[in-house]
Structure prediction request, 427 residues.
Amino acid sequence: MRLQLDAQLDQIAKKLRELATAKDRLQSLLDAVLALSREEDLPAVLHRCVTTAMSLTGARYGALGVLNESGEELEQFITAGLSESELSDLAGTDFPRGRGVLGHLIRNPQPLRVDDIASHPASVGFPPGHPPMRTLLGVAISVRGTIYGDLYLSERHDGRPFDREDEDIVVTLAGAAGIAIENMRLFEQVRDSAEHFQRLLLPTLPDLHPFIGAATYRPATAPGHLGGDWYDAIWLPDNSCAVVIGDVVGHDLHAAAAMAQTRSMLRALLYDRLTPPSTVLHQLDRTLHGITDLPVTTACLARIEPAQEGWTLHWSTAGHLPPLLITPDRQTRYLYAEPGLPLAVNTEQPRPDHTHPLPPGATVVFYTDGLIEHPAHAVDDGLARLAELATAYIGLPLQDFVDTLADHHPSDGHDDMAILALRTPHT
Prediction:
C-alpha cells in the first residue's frame, strides 16, 4: 500500500513538474512574441526570431534563411550560436543558397524534424569547416500567405532530438514572426513614403558663390512621423545671401503643409523687401496670421552681408536655437542673443536684430532642435556635444561636415532634424 502511494505521489509530482515546465515555456513564448513586436527594424526582428527559437527549444545553433523573389533559393542567411572559432573556420565559405535538406524545406514548406541529417535523402553534406550537426528542426515563415523564409534549429544542448513540443512552439513563434515581419515592412514603407514626401518639400540649395552652402535633412525614426523642419538659402539682388532654418510644431501632414507654405511665402518676402531680417519675420508673421491658420513655428533668418573686412552676419530669431559659429582656427561660439517670440504667438511684439562679424573662412551652422535634444539630457549638454563635433569635423568638405553632424547627432533621433551650413570665402 505504501509503495503504491509513493508511486502515485511520484506521478503527481512528475505531472506538476511537466505543468510548471509547460507554463514556463508558454510564458517564454508570450515574452518572445512581445519582444518581436518591439523591435524597430527588420534585421533586428529576424535576428530576434532566431535567438528566441534557440532559447525556447534549447538549441545550440539557429539560422533563418530569407528567400529571394522567385522563392526558389535563399538570398540572406542569419545565423546564431556559432563560436568565434567556428565562424573563423567558415570564413570565405558562401552562405547556403537552399540546397540539400534546407532546399527540401523550401520545396516542401511543412515542419521538418530530422534526427540524423546525414541519412536524410536530400542531404548533400556540409562544406569544409562546418561544425558537426546531426539533428534539425525546420519551420517555414509565411507573410500574407507567401513563404518568406525558413527557420532552422540544430543540436539541442541536452543531446536529444527535437520533439513534437519543440515543433509546436517553433511553429507558433514562426506565426508571430510572420506578423512582425509584415508590420515592419509596413513600417518601412510608411517611413520611406513620409521621408520622400518631406524631401520633395525641401529645396535644393542654389549656387551661393562666393559662399559654400550645404544642407541635410534626416527624418524622425517613428513611422509616418512627418516633420515641419525646413531650410532655405537664396542670393538676393542687394549682393547679400539669405539663409533660414525653421521648425513648425507638429509631426503630421498639417505641419508639413504649413512648413511648405511658410517657406514659399518667406522666399517671396525676402526677395521683394530687402529689409532687415526682423522686418521680414514680422511681415511673414502678420501675413500668415491674416491668411492661414499657422501652427507655432520657430525660425532663424539671417543675411550675410558684405563688410569692409569680410562679411557681417545679420540675423533675427523667432524663438529658435542660436547659430553656431566656427572660426578658421576651430574655435566655436554660439551666437546667443534675444530670440524673439515664435511665429503665430503675437504679431504685435517687436523683433530684435543682431549682427556679428564673419572672418574669411568662417562657418555658420543653423540647425533644428531634433539635432540636439534628448529627453535624458539637458539642452545645454546637446549644444556642448554639437560644438565638440563641429570642432572635430570642421576640416571636412562642407557637405560631408553637415552629414557627419547628422550621423553623430547627440539627440535621441525621435524628432526630425535639419542642418544648413554656410562658409565664407577664405580671402
The radius of gyration is 31 Å. The chain has a mean pLDDT of 82. The first strand starts at residue 59 and ends at 67.
